[in-house]
Amino acid sequence: MSAILRMLGSLQLGRKETVKKQLVTEWGEEVLTASKEADYVPLPDYPRPQMRRGSFKILNGWWEYAFLRLPEGPELRGRTRFPKRTDGWIPDGKILVPFSPETLLSGVGRQLMPDELLYYRRTFTLPEEGDGRILVHFGAVDQECCVYLNGARAGYHMGGYLPFTIDASGLVRSGENTLEVRVRDVSDTCWHARGKQKLKPGGMYYTAQSGIWQTVWLERVPEVYIKSVEILPDIDREELKITLHADGASREENYEAEVKVLGEGAEVSSVRVSGTAGLGENCIFLIAPVPDCRLWTPEDPYLYDLSVELRTGGSFDHVMSYAGMRSYTIEEDEGGRARFCLNHKPYFLNGVLDQGYWPEGLYTPPKTKAFAYDIRGMKELGFNFARKHAKIEPLIWYACCDRLGFIVFQDMVNGGTTYSTPRVTWLPTVFPALQKMKGWSAAAAGRRDEEGRQEFVREVKNTVKLLKSVPCLGGWTLFNEGWGQFGAAHLTDMIRKLDGTRPIDTASGWFDGGEGDFISDHNYFRDLIVPEERIKNARKRAAFISEYGGMTLNVPGHTESAEVYGYDAIASKDEFAAKFRRVMAEIAALEKKGLSGAVYTQVSDIEEETNGLLTYDRRVRKV
User: Fold this and answer.
1) Are strands 164-167 and 93-97 parallel, antiparallel or unpaired?
2) How far apart are CA 140 and CA 213, in angstroms?
């Protein structure tokens, strides 16, 4: 009976709107103090750790902003009609980029609505004099934006989670330049990717955020430059397969590329190739030997540095990168059971759900060192793995996991129009028999619109492309509990062709059609067991509890709302600790019975949801 009551309590029926208390982490307090200075630059770290250059300028800091209502009224589908040039507008005030306007740290504290536009503006001078191109990089802007330089339209981007770059070479000038960004975010009123954001948050859905939420920066590059570096470790051959994607080279232009592998400050190997830059659509392939390679593991997260050079005619480009020698596979153990393997050895994924929210910054951490605090804290509790849930982090977060030794499974960020919550979420939670594919339909999952489906396909491809070279990235999660689900078999095959080096959790929770590499179960209310195959499948899949736990402990003074949400109310820290240890012991016992991994919910409290191991302000560890 208690389990049934807990299930019903999780359905969030008739939740009330309550006044929220603003929580602040210790790093947020530092930002609030430092940002009183007009020239304060938050998050000043170079934002692309596997593509580091010396010539750059961070554009975070105080920008002008204004909210303007769309002249044509709400238009919830399709692209916004941004003008070709900017016109005059009067600022409402200053906003601290890259914090969304809905956050405390932005200095604004105002929700961007679907029938509004958010305008940004700042001036800048170039990093230094020189030849070549000027690139303006945006880590992420939620959800749709148009970029202007010195009054002229410079570029457009749709999608709130992926980075994009504007080539500003023909628009910038010596002296002062004006950069403007116009943003629209329809949040959960359309099919665009949104993760856990809602305009009416509550329970396991959180405050919708918008606008610039990752670092903006300038970079000077040569005319022919390294656009990206793709790194594929092969521990069996003891080598790194490296693909350089160049931009700006003509098909007749000769090139010379060199990669040096460095370990402990000494050169391990180097490889040099030359040819015609136009071959292979400006892709340059190199194979660098790494003899007697030291393998990357969470227990020994060893990374090799890479020095990458490209010469073409009068151009020379150089970037620094890094790589980890490791492999992620599904293989059979001695008993014939499918297991997740790290470096060809069974490795139990003792994981935690990480949603990446901060009370004063929502999607954006107040400081980079806050990332390390969370990861170290989870490792101290015995976890070696995170499922990054419904969000793509700044690349610095993945680099932190690489350096500290934390395996990551990356969710594809869900989208789609309004889901049939009873059919997709509530009923399968209460009645596990409805978790089979017969309880699912694309329409119920919010996937009627072909345009929205194609947008999701593009974003899945770009997510794989963005994170493919990350050493800690151990697997992909395609769909969560049927949210926005469609074409699971096709999309699983597509991901495997884009990246055949990692396993795929196609259907995390339920609505499993037999695709992917895991039998992936969410279990909050039943006895923990090793999930069994749901359908006949000749290819063995690893057993995975991809969500469990969710114990709720409200710590007075460290909770945002009087209305709290979770799956199992706990009265005290002592009771929480005792039950946490008991549950972890159950999970350890299931490993011996064939379980490959499990994901505890979750790292921290978030707004009403108080089932974290840390409070939302990160000031109290509950166990």
Assistant:
1) unpaired
2) 6
pLDDT of residue 14: 47
Residue 387 burial by CB count (10 A; 0-12/13-18/19+): exposed, middle or buried?
buried
Locate 560 and state its tokens. 């945002």
Mean pLDDT of the chain: 93
d(CA 443, CA 49): 40
Can you read off the two tokens belonging to residue 584?
Answer: 């972890």
What tokens were used for 447? 């996937």
Return the residue matching tokens 């062709």: 497
The residues with which 217 forms a beta bridge, in sequence order, are 58, 137
Lateral strand order in the sheet of 304-312: 266-276, 254-263, 304-312, 315-323
Token digits for 18? 């309550």
- CA 351 to CA 332: how far, in whole Å? 21
Pair 96, 105: CB distance under 8 Å: yes
* DSSP one-letter string for 565-599: B-SEE--SHHHHHHHHHHHHHHHHHHHHTTEEEEE
Question: Hey, is 314 helix, strand or coil?
Answer: coil
Q: 437-477: per-residue pLDDT in tens?
A: 877 888 999 999 999 999 999 999 999 999 999 999 999 99
How far is the C-alpha of 76 from the C-alpha of 143, rounded, in Å? 12
Q: How confident is the model at residue 3 (pLDDT cuts 50, 70, 90)?
A: low
- Residue spans of beta strands (DSSP E) within 202-248: 206-207, 211-212, 216-221, 225-234, 239-247
Three-class DSSP category at 546? strand
What is the phi-psi region of residue 168: left when phi exceeds 0, alpha when psi lies from -120 to 50, beta otherwise? alpha
Phi then psi for 7, rounded to 5 degrees? -60, -50
Paired tokens of 575: 């009771």
